[in-house]
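User: I need a structural model of Putative ABC transporter-binding protein from Acidithrix ferrooxidans for a docking pre-check later this week. Nothing fancy, just the predicted structure tokens so I can convert them on my end. Input:
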Amino acid sequence: MGSETEGNEIISDGGIGRRKFLGFGVAAVGGAVLAACGSGTSSSTTTAAAAAGTTTSGAPARQTGPIVIAGPQDNSGTTTILINQWNNANPETPVTFQTIPPVTNDVYNQYVTALAGGASTPDILTMDVTYPGTFAAAGWVAPLDQYASAAFQSAFIPTALNIGKYKGKLYAIPQSIDVGQLYYRTDLLTKYNETVPTTYAELVRISQKIQTAERATNPNFWGYVWEGAQIEAIVDEFCEYTWGYGGEISSGSKVTLNTPAGNKSLQFLYDTVYTTKISPPGTSTMKPNDALVLMQNGNALFMRNWTYAYTLANSPTQSKVPGKVNNAPLPGLTNGSGHGCTGGWMYSINAKSARPEAAWRVIQYLTSQAQQIQLTSGAGLLSARKDVQTDTQLVLKSPNLKNLPTILASAKARPSIQNYPAVSATLQAPLNSVMANQSSVSAGLAAMQAAVASAVVA
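Assistant: Understood. Predicted structure tokens for Putative ABC transporter-binding protein:
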């Protein structure tokens, strides 16, 4: 997945109603943010013009006219800045931005409804990494091979680019890659003479110790917060803990969930709320931004979340603990056995778009080195471009990048299951039912296995 977010106490959600989304009402990105860029606007505008001007030999004729891009809200404002830079340099092809819902389940459902109905906008779809195969098979997104040269494709990490391919053709370009990781309060670990946990036992022990101590002055403090709501994130976390217990999610072409490792995974998650009690009672309704707000407000020691959370957890204007949150690989049963689930966002072109060539130039611009450096530095997202991940100045300015190579080294991807979004949706209800204490671990696993009986791993 990409970062599933839901606005609340500190972060406004920016979500849109179903009717507005399906009607694709858009608001043009105005000039106020561009003006706020100060002296940097001129060079950025030049970069935007340069990035817009190249296509591969034999590509369709250059097109102009308005382009609509749908994507998740960027609370850092970086996306707004990038689009303003484009519009300043390319007034004949103005881009407007349509905010999509904060949870990937809702995004998928609304995209499917609109595209199946033949909608021609948005021209550019920002989609979760699990969508490209399903959308390509349905004919809803256009192949990009005629636009994306070999040189362009070689700039990206192969594993990230390959996610956008279906039956040998390229249908999506990585906007950013993501990975589940452990966030922690550096000041509290130092205060209580503890280190970052690398095993589940350490995670529980340290959480209980510091939670008990901190509650002497903060009764709202929790040792470990994570996302247990009925959304894609709970499937990702089940995968992470199953891997951490030495198991796998698939065997051959079959999805295998009701296994010893799967049982231990779900039992551990259940126990965090009801047995070890290091996680809040409301975990079954918690989404990524809910967990983030607890960390931002100084009410959590550890948090499982996505890459975007680093910048916001350390923001001087949005967090009460700026500079006191760091990231690390997720723990496992034994030291070094933890695995974060990979995710991210990709750009695709609506097959019904009236201006696919213009849409491609916008994608080319947004995924160029200069703009990806801006997105990584400003929004805290992780680019899939090799030349961005290794940019020395960027790493110095973006502390969250320092630990990401280690986190990514142990990361794992969900199985390539045919029609994955629909399969995942059938798993979220039984997982959430266990976390809401409405069904047992064994009953939840049995229901999950039954739900994937006909699922096929590609």
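Before docking, keep this in mind: The longest strand covers residues 342-349.
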